[in-house]
Amino acid sequence: MNNAIDKLIDKIKQMDNPTVIGLDPRYDMLPKCITDKYDKTIQGACKAILEFNKALIDATYNIIPAVKPQVAFYEMFGVEGMEVFAKTCQYAKQKGMIVIADAKRGDIGSTATGYSNAYLGKTPLLEKEEAVFDVDFVTINPYLGFDGIKPFIEDAKKYGKGVFIIDKTSNPSSGELQDLKLENGKTIYEEVAILIENWGEELRGKYGYSSISSVVGATYPEQLKTLRSLAPHTFFLIPGYGAQRRKSQRHCIRF
Known about the structure:
Layout: H1 4-15, E1 19-23, H2 32-35, H3 42-60, E2 66-69, H4 72-75, H5 78-94, E3 98-105, H6 109-119, E4 123-124, E5 129-130, E6 137-140, H7 146-159, E7 162-168, H8 175-178, H9 188-199, E8 210-216, H10 221-230, E9 234-238, E10 250-254
Parallel strand pairs: 1-2, 2-3, 3-6, 6-7, 7-8, 8-9
Antiparallel strand pairs: 1-10, 4-5, 9-10
Helix pairs in contact: 3-5, 6-7
């Protein structure tokens, strides 16, 4: 089975482009020529969002290797919104793009397993299993420790998928927790980087990077250098590289 991070890096090399397009649809920011086609209802908004997403994918699939839909922008529309999320992921995969579900899930035990089943693995039924969203990567939160990470690692191994684990984020208040110093002199984000590096050891691919990867904000370049030295085999998803706009965010993937 192919290693997920190898597939992503192969795609980046093929496109000669390390960016991922974020699909964080704001209904009030969609082009009027699209929204005017549909009723001003939840159902109409979802139809407009799907049309917009497909148009973006059609315009970028042959130049950008990956797409990253943020689940919150679909959950807010309820069942219809999650259907749009699923259809968006399916459409991007049909176009050959790598799909990263930006869900930032984080829990333990059977709950973590349920999240992993939904995005990376398969949902068990009485006599079979079925894939639901079936994306290539999902973002997760490490705050609960390895109990919350293990189900995702197991599914990554079994199904050739991957995760991006939140480490050092780009939001202004991230330092309130992530920059706290521990007794050994390291910050919390430095220790998390070491944990991610170790968690991903068994899933390193042909390029030397692991499918158990991390999210590291580029708004702190010195800290980024430190994290690279602490985690040489960890692939970084980097928000804040270049311009970030509310309407359409772009993230840089570096390796």
